[in-house]
Amino acid sequence: MSSERLLGSNNNYNNDADNDNSSSSEMSLRFRGRLCQFFLILLFLGGGLLFIIHFLRQQPAINQYEILKNYNRNHRYSRLTQGQPRSILLWNAFFGDRRWKLPDDTLGPDYFREQRCPVVNCVLTNNKDFLPAIEMFDAIVFHVAEHFPFLQPVPRRRNPYQQYVFALMEPPGETKHILGNEERFYNLTMTYRLDSDIFWPYMFFEDIESGYIVAPSLNPTWRTVESMESSNDEQLDKLIAGKKKFAAWFVSHCDTLSKREELTKSLQKYVNVDVYGACGTLKCPHNSSKCDQMIDSNYKFYFAFENSLCLDYVTEKFYNALNRQVVPVVFGGADYTKIAPPHSYINAEKFKTVKELADYLIYLNNHPKEYARYFWWRKFYRLTSRSPFCDLCSKLNAPAATEKVQFYDDIENWWLGGSCYFEPKILL
């Protein structure tokens, strides 16, 4: 066979093979196209079917029982405690005291009755095992001036209807947490700040006649300051006449953000100030009746100087002075008109210079009748105290307590942002 015939035979074979391959490719493409069309149709039908099922499931006539089951499943914790006292857990200690200076580890409605709370349906405890699970407590109170427990800093599980409470009586500088890491953690605030959800001052002013709590509050309404000129209060006049010393200051922290130590040092250039405690040369047992009697009998003025100049920050020093027979001189960042009756204290921050303040104190010292006017309020108001857990108990028992759950998105800014200043207004 010649080479030409062999070559021609091979070419015919190759052409037949190419034709077979081409036909196979076309069939494969047609198959794939039909398969894609099938899947598209299936996807369309499936989507339509899912839409119909979803639509039907939303109809109350079909899904009413599912709606009911879902609701009860989501509200299982509130359902378990329905009709029972609202439970409050103290998560960590209050300056080393796990009882938070309360009479027992667990306190029931009787405690709230003793506190004259408007709502008493609560239990307050520091026992984490009081309920079967942490997430069953209605509220958990976190003391932010102390570190949280090392082994379990925060609860491992959280019921979405629980109220986490940010609790603090100290100024922002005493916060022991990086609050930027605790965003959307707290639901309620319980502090001395007037804009707190639960207001927690050391004491309240109560109107003697009506029993109404007047202050501290954002907009207190005070009675008119009465002149003591014609009061003929012989007992008060005798007390004032027996006071032979000028001013006393009890203090243990000597280097503060407010620079109160510098204010006292400047005042001592013009008036006599006896300094008791770690920062002075005089001693007297802390919170003793002997010290109280000495202040009442000997001193005209008592320095209630705060360690920080912060919004609404007023400590027990001020209220202790108001409970004594002495006129407090205050130094702090609060608006005292919202805290105490007018003309019941002398605010150092309202004077331009230390000498102006000293001159006014000297004037009152030399004019007993003017000095006596600072006691006018005692005929109309009395100091009283109330547990902040009264308000927390009321909130937890409110009808919508488990429905309107708020979160502080930026607790750091609320607590720290612009709340303090570091340069006194009075020129030292």
Notable characteristics:
428 residues, alpha/beta, Rossmann fold, 3 domains, seven-stranded mixed β-sheet, five-stranded parallel β-sheet, 35% helix, elongated, disordered N terminus
Question: What would you say this structure looks like, in words?
Answer:
With 428 residues, this protein is of the alpha/beta class. It has 3 domains: 1-43; 83-202 and 392-421, no CATH class; 204-384, 3-Layer(aba) Sandwich (Rossmann fold), CATH 3.40.50.11660. Helices cover 35% and strands 16% of the residues. It contains 12 helices and 17 strands. Strand 8 and strand 9 form a beta hairpin. The longest helix has 55 residues, at 3-57. 28% of the residues are buried.
Write the layout of secondary structure elements.
Elements: H1 3-57, H2 60-74, H3 76-80, E1 86-90, E2 106-107, H4 109-114, E3 122-125, E4 139-143, E5 163-168, E6 188-191, E7 198-199, E8 204-207, E9 213-215, H5 234-241, E10 245-250, H6 260-267, E11 273-276, H7 289-298, E12 299-305, E13 309-310, H8 316-322, E14 327-331, E15 346-347, H9 354-366, H10 368-372, E16 381-384, H11 388-397, H12 411-416, E17 420-421
Parallel strand pairs: 1-3, 1-4, 4-5, 5-6, 6-7, 10-11, 10-12, 12-14, 14-15
Antiparallel strand pairs: 2-3, 8-9, 8-16, 13-17
